[in-house]
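lol ok so funny story. i was supposed to be doing the assay writeup but got distracted and ended up predicting the structure for this chain instead. priorities right. anyway since i did it might as well share w the group, maybe its usefull for someone
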Amino acid sequence: MNNTASEGVRLVEAIKPLVSDAECDVVVCVPFIDIPAVAEALKGSNIHLGAQNVHFAEKGAYTGEISAAMLKEYGVEYVIIGHSERRQYFGETDETVNKRMHAALAAGLTPIVCIGESLEERETGKTEAVLDVQIREGFKGVDDISKIVIAYEPIWAIGTGKTATAEQANETIGFIRKTCAEVFCPKCAEKVRIQYGGSMNAKNCKELMAMPEIDGGLIGGASLKAEDFSVIVHYNK
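and the output, tada:
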C-alpha cells in the first residue's frame, strides 16, 4: 500500500529509462487505484503491468473486490496471489489462493503465486511439509504449472531481522521445483519460473541470482527506489 496514482507514475517514469535494455521480464504490481494512471505511463515501454490481488468471482455482490475482467480492461498481465501479507492479515488460505489463481488463468492473466513458511515453522523443521501442502492445495487442478510464476516468500526472513542465505533460498526453491515435478510433470517443473521473495535488494541480488534454482525476484521495498530496482534488474552486469 505505497504510492498514490501520481506518485506511482513518477516512480515508473524514473524506472523506465533505467530498465529499457533489461534482459529479463520487468513487471510492476501496483495498488488497484493506481492501475489506470500507471498503465498509461507504461505505454511504449518494456515494463509489464501487474496487480496485487484478484477476486475469484467474475462479478457479483463482493463489495470492495476487483475481478479479473476489470484488471484486463486496463492492460494488466500479471497478478500476485497469496502474498504472505494477504495470508497473515486478511485470512487468505490455500483454498482461496487456488480459486483466485484459476480465475486469473481463465482470464488470461499470469498468476504470481506466493508460498512460504513462518519463523516457527522454519525453526521446528516444518518448511518442506508446509510448502508441500501449499503446492498441492494451492495449485490443485492446474493442467500446466509452467503457466504460473511461483514466488518463494520465507515469511521468517521478512521483518524479523533474520536473513535467508543464498544457499538456503536455493535449497528450498529446489525442493519446490522437485515437488512440482512430482505433482505435475518434470518438464513443466523445469520450465516453471520460481522467484525468491525474501527481501531481495540491490546488495544481495547478485549472490541470490547466481543460485541455479532461483529464476527471479519478487521485490518489495527495493522496488520503491528506481535506482535500487534498476540494480536488481541488471544484476548480471
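The CA atoms of residues 163 and 187 lie 32 Å apart. The chain has a mean pLDDT of 95.
back to the writeup now i swear
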